Amino acid sequence: ISGIGNIDDDEILFRRKISPYRKANEDSLDGCAEISKNTRLVLSEAIKKVLAMYDDNISFKAVQIFPNEQSQIPSVARAYWIYDCVMEECIHADAIKLPNGAYQEIIIDKRKIKGRNIFRPKGLQQNQIVVSLAVAESILRRNPYGVSLKKVEMR
């Protein structure tokens, strides 16, 4: 399957019960959405550098995504990064969990994050990371494309 790095492909395909030898055009749109949901976030070089500045325990792996048209490869193909950062059991007891398993709003228990600047809360359905204000400001100074930041309550 094109565009999924080796670090993720076995796990994603196993969860979806897809043979790794299956052709990409044999999967449905729902199947493609499920694969996308289980794929880790892909970071640009600029965002990777910011995260590495604030946490040297995050590991990164380079991936390249290529267009279908060979003539577009020189202008479009570039390295992106998938990351593996610490997961913390840090969702506060006051966070309301909805029937579908998602949280109405994420509330972080600040006693459980051990002063980390970057981490992934355990128990979230979405692949999201939480960053400190300093990391968020560093990211925004680089005018990123496709990055969405949202204030998270901490108690």
Describe this structure in a few short sentences.
This protein is an alpha/beta fold and 155 residues long. The protein is 28% helix and 17% strand. The chain has a three-stranded antiparallel β-sheet. A three-stranded mixed β-sheet has the order 4-6-7.
In terms of per-residue confidence, which ranges show pLDDT below 50 for 5 or more consecutive residues?
A: 1-7
Count helical runs: 5
Could you tell me the radius of gyration in angstroms?
A: 17 Å
- Distance linking N and C termini: 42 Å
* Sheet/helix structural class: alpha/beta
Strand order of the largest sheet: 1-3-2
Q: How would you sum up the global shape? A: globular
Percent in strands: 15-25%
Number of strands: 8
Keywords:
single chain, globular, 5 helices, three-stranded mixed beta sheet, three-stranded antiparallel beta sheet, 8 strands, 155 residues, alpha/beta
